[in-house]
Structure formats: structure tokens, C-alpha cells
Design goal:
disordered N terminus, mainly alpha, about 200 residues, Serine Threonine Protein Phosphatase 5, Tetratricopeptide repeat
């Protein structure tokens, strides 16, 4: 969620994710491109995404992982059609100017038009987090994960929301799950090692 992400250490982690996958070069929430993936075989898209996740899990360097991560975000942000891409772009622009309510209303439209689009839920979760509506943000993150269980950004966001709400153990467990998917996840620094892990 919310390059998402959400967060016992505050919104800086989420913002870092956003900067790392798309709304700005190299950040999450990458701006949607003009590709209309509805014209491409869904199977081909899924095969490519599966391969990217395999490569991400076996990445051996930060740079390599970032390049793969950005491709995954591009895939997420370029779906499901140009209308939705345009709305996502508008929402990200509103967010950039701190007009969170406008961004949320636009993302309401995205979810109404494309309820099966995981990134729509993830993006709205990010906005809800920024509005400090944590329970609603968590609900949207959970929906995003139902649709895309490998969404490391949404998992990182879910973990940080839970830790912020005082459910530290559960948050840590989910964060570790995210790191299994993305070994170089930026939020991995939030994992607290136990004495047993250090031995």
C-alpha cells in the first residue's frame, strides 16, 4: 500500500515507498503509462508478473531488486485500462498537492469502476492513512491483498498500520512475510530481531 505502506515510524516510510516506485522517478505509485493492457492477453501479463516475482525473490543486490520492483509497480499501475490509469494519475497529482480528500474521491471512482483492481484499493488505503483513518486504511489494504497476495507494498503498509495500532507482533509477522517476497524491501529495517534470531 499504500511503495505503501504505513507505519509505526510515521508516514515517512510510506512516502519513501511512493518515491521509490512511481509518482516520482524510481518510486512506488508510479504514474500510469498509456498502455491499455486490456488489449493484451491476461495470461501473458500474468506469466510476466510471475517471472518478475521469481527474479525479485532471488535478487542478489539492492540495485537489481529496485529495477525488478519498478517493473512490478509499472505492471500494477498500468492496469486495467486507460480510463482507470487516468483517474489514478489524477489522484496521485491531488495527493502530491496534499489534497487528500480530492484524491480519495477520485479513488472511490476507481474502485467503483474497477473493484477487481488491487492497486485501486492500495492507493486509496494510502490516502486514508494520510488522513489518519487507520481502520479504513487497513480494510482497503486487506482488500488489495485479497486481489494480489504478493503485493509487498500493501503487506508493508498493513504491517505498519498494525504496529501503529499496538499489534506489534502481528505487524512484525506480516512484515517478515513481505520480505520473503521482496528481500530488499525498504521497510525491512523495521523488523526487530529477537535475541534468538541474533544467536
Amino acid at each position: 500500500m499504500l511503495h505503501n505502506p504505513i507505519f509505526t515510524v510515521g508516514i515517512s516510510a510510506l512516502v519513501a515507498i511512493a518515491l521509490s516506485t512511481g509518482s516520482l522517478p524510481g518510486g512506488a505509485w508510479a504514474a500510469a503509462d498509456s498502455t491499455d493492457v486490456s488489449q493484451i492477453s491476461k495470461t501473458a501479463i500474468e506469466i510476466r508478473q510471475d517471472r518478475l516475482f521469481e527474479l525479485l525473490a532471488s535478487a542478489t543486490s539492492e540495485q537489481q531488486a529496485r529495477e525488478i520492483e519498478n517493473e512490478i509497480w509499472q505492471n500494477w499501475m498500468s492496469q486495467p485500462n486507460r480510463e482507470i490509469q487516468a483517474l489514478i494519475k489524477q489522484a496521485m497529482e491531488a495527493r502530491r498537492w496534499y489534497d487528500f480528500e480530492k484524491a480519495r474521491k477520485i479513488l472511490d471512482q476507481v474502485i467503483e469502476k474497477a473493484p477487481g483492481y488491487a492497486e485501486g484499493w492500495n492507493q486509496r488505503a494510502f490516502i486514508l492513512f494520510l488522513q489518519e483513518k487507520f481502520d479504513s486504511a487497513l480494510s482497503d489494504v486487506e482488500k488489495a491483498l485479497e486481489l494480489e497476495p504478493r503485493h509487498f507494498g500493501a503487506l508493508a503498509g498493513q504491517a505498519q498500520i498494525l504496529m501503529r495500532q499496538g499489534r506489534f507482533s502481528t505487524g512484525q509477522k506480516i512484515l517478515k512475510q513481505a520480505v520473503k517476497i521482496h528481500p530488499f524491501l525498504r521497510e525491512r529495517s523495521l523488523i526487530v530481531k529477537t535475541q534468538e534470531q541474533d544467536l
